[in-house]
Design goal:
single chain; 137 residues; mainly beta; Elongation Factor Tu (Ef-tu), domain 3; six-stranded antiparallel beta sheet; 30% strand
Length: 137
């Protein structure tokens, strides 16, 4: 079983989303969602070619809010906590992310799930690592 992201980062997830898998993708076969996939975040109003995508990873939850274990099937629609990986990008995302913000989980340039931010979690907190005292990335 993979280590949960909070154990690696020493902090809380940044925000929570409600997502819906986009099964009618231009990828053949369509990209399925799976735990600890390295999809990225695209704000709904952004163009990935000019605005870029952001390294913010999902950690999918089951219907009760429990983190889904590696190897368990990820729901086609549900919730996930989101983790901003690079400390230096957190201030920029603090300005953009709010409850109701919309975006996509993307793999490369392919949108694989649409999402809406439902809660801000640790994004407003300091992200200093408990174990080392250094900023996490």
């Amino acid at each position: 079983m993979a280590v949960r992201l909070y154990k690696l980062s020493g902090r809380s997830p940044d925000f929570r989303i409600h997502y819906k898998w986009l099964c009618a993708q231009d990828i053949d076969p369509p990209q399925r969602l799976f735990q600890h996939m390295r999809s990225d975040w695209l704000y709904a109003e952004d163009d990935p070619r000019t605005d870029g995508i952001h390294i913010i990873y999902p950690e999918f939850e089951d219907r009760t809010g429990r983190v889904i274990a590696d190897g368990e099937r990820v729901l086609d629609e549900g919730t996930a906590t989101m983790w901003i990986l690079f400390e230096e990008s957190r201030p920029r995302h603090r300005e953009r992310i709010a409850a109701g913000s919309r975006g996509y989980l993307v793999v490369g340039s392919n949108r694989i799930a649409e999402a809406e931010v439902t809660a801000i979690l640790g994004l407003a907190e300091s992200s200093i690592s408990i174990s080392s005292g250094d900023a996490t990335s």
